Amino acid sequence: MSVIEVTKANFESEVLKSEVPVLADFNAGWCGPCRAMKPMLDELAEGNTAYKIVSIDIDAEDELAEDYDVTSIPCLVVFKGGEEVNRSVGLIAKDAIAELVEG
């Protein structure tokens, strides 16, 4: 599976109603740490079926960012059963990303 681009239109189906846990990456194209984390998220998503990774551009989807109190990026939010269960703000290592979602 690859990283899925999520908008307000598909957020409910891709994140809130997901059968598997979801790691939501709130980011922006102008954010250096976000760009640094992208290859790690792509690697984690590749061939992964235990959870899915989605990407949310806060500039395009400012309402979603506001709904989930995202005030600093990169912000990783883990959802299970439609509820937020974990969060990390700032650039973190690939193994810490996996640990965040596998919890």
Q: Helix and strand layout, with pairings?
A:
Elements: E1 4-5, H1 8-16, E2 22-27, H2 32-45, E3 52-57, H3 62-67, E4 75-80, E5 83-89, H4 94-102
Parallel strand pairs: 1-3, 2-3
Antiparallel strand pairs: 2-4, 4-5
Can you offer a commentary on this structure?
37% of the residues lie in helices and 26% in strands. It has four helices and five strands; from the N terminus they run E-H-E-H-E-H-E-E-H. Helix 2 links the parallel strand 2 and strand 3.
Class based on secondary structure composition and strand pairing: alpha/beta
CA(first)-CA(last) distance: 20 Å
Low-pLDDT windows of residues: none
Output mean pLDDT: 96
Radius of gyration: 12 Å
- The fraction of residues assigned to DSSP E strands is 25-35%
Main sheet, how many strands, which sense, barrel?
5 strands, mixed
Shape label: globular
Q: Can you count the helices?
A: 4
Order of helices and strands: EHEHEHEEH
- Strand order across the largest sheet: 1-3-2-4-5
According to DSSP, the number of beta strands is: 5
Helix content: 25-40%
Structure characteristics:
103 residues; alpha/beta; five-stranded mixed β-sheet; 5 strands; 26% strand
Can you summarize this structure?
By secondary structure, the protein is an alpha/beta fold. It has helices at residues 8-16, 32-45, 62-67, 94-102, and strands at 4-5, 22-27, 52-57, 75-80, 83-89.
